[in-house]
Amino acid sequence: MDLSATSYALIGLAALLAGILPRVLERRPLSMPIAFLGLGMLVFLLPLGLPEPDPVTHAGITTQLTEIGVIVALMGAGLKIDRPLGRLRWSSTWRLLAVAMPLCIAAVALLGWWWLGLAPAAALLLAAALAPTDPVLASDVQVGEPTDVEDNEDEVRFALTAEAGLNDGLAFPFVYAAITIATVGLAPGGWLARWLTVDVGYRIVLGVAGGLLVGWLLGKLFFRSRSERLRLARHSEGFLALAATFLSYGLVELVGGYGFVAVFATARAIRAAERSHEYHQVLHHFAEQVERLLTVLLLLLLGGAVVTGLFAPLTWPAVALALALLFVVRPLTGRLSLLGAPGRPAEHWVIALFGIRGVGTFYYLGYATTHAYFPGADLLWATAGLVVVVSVVVHGVAATPVMQLLDRRLDRTSGPASGDPAPGGRPVDVPTPRAPAAAGASAPASPGPDDPARN
What we know:
Layout: H1 3-24, H2 32-45, H3 59-80, H4 91-114, H5 120-129, H6 155-170, H7 172-184, H8 192-224, H9 240-254, H10 259-273, H11 279-310, H12 316-337, H13 345-353, H14 359-369, H15 377-413
């Protein structure tokens, strides 16, 4: 059988299904990731002569594919959040990043060392790789396309979207710590000072500052260029979302910053340049379509890896750790971090429960295992793969009914009672929160104002 022709046919079929399935599965307790994960399993079980998509053997390719998938998803996530950045407005996000993520990393690292018997560096790598929630596979519980209303996002969808947009980059210092420990040893005298100053401080600051600068410059070009020919927002070119993504990521990585952080910051800066302009919808739609195609490819390969031996190294303690992360560690640390945060207790529990794991996990494992030697790497891949597969299935089945129930409750209460604080901390009447649009659907564009919107 002609392997090249077979591959083209499969890619074409997958792309066609990527356009059909979101509409067929809309408002049903079955997600597109589940469908393509299952399709990948089926395809690689057939006698088609396809090569085994083993992420351990092909760690370099895995890293590159997942890297592209994550940065495109981060651009889309940053563009679609309507709520302006702020200390109080983003209170839930800061809590999830500052409390829930470090606690998750500490708990999984401890379990990996004590329960699985992993070396300290390997245990920390597993914890760091499993720390970020996923902007690629979590679209069913995230906000929809950009609108011109700042405070119309319910707390659950906003918090999960913003958390996924930022924690992919913020997990990187812990991955670097694992690589350093694997290289120079556990004694902190050989690495801790440099890790705190460079990997935690310098790289994060550079990622944020570089991303904001690139986004500010692109925002000036898109919306406010003195030359009408260069005012690119007038021409509605969606592919410029990729230009912004790769430019921001590449430039910041070149100077040693965290590119994941930079891409999300770039998207937020572009959004702030002219907050209500319809061009944001154009950029978001294009990024979303590219993201969906990449997601299909990655899920097909993950399904193939599952049926060709990815889970072979699994042990029962590894299975227990994977389930504990999804159903005990993340829910409890997430709920703890949201004590006193905006929203109701039921919303806090939904945020805590839907910490979906996915593509970023495989990127970090691929990156780390190509930069240092980790004993038991096959067990790390198997455990992480199990976490992602269980997350895709369980969260994919639960997302639609849970979010529908949440929307009905919010509709009945019509938002916070009069006098409750809005995300910005001032008493207002909050409009009914919007649910995310079906993937691939478009909403009427709202014309942007002549003058720049206030941030």
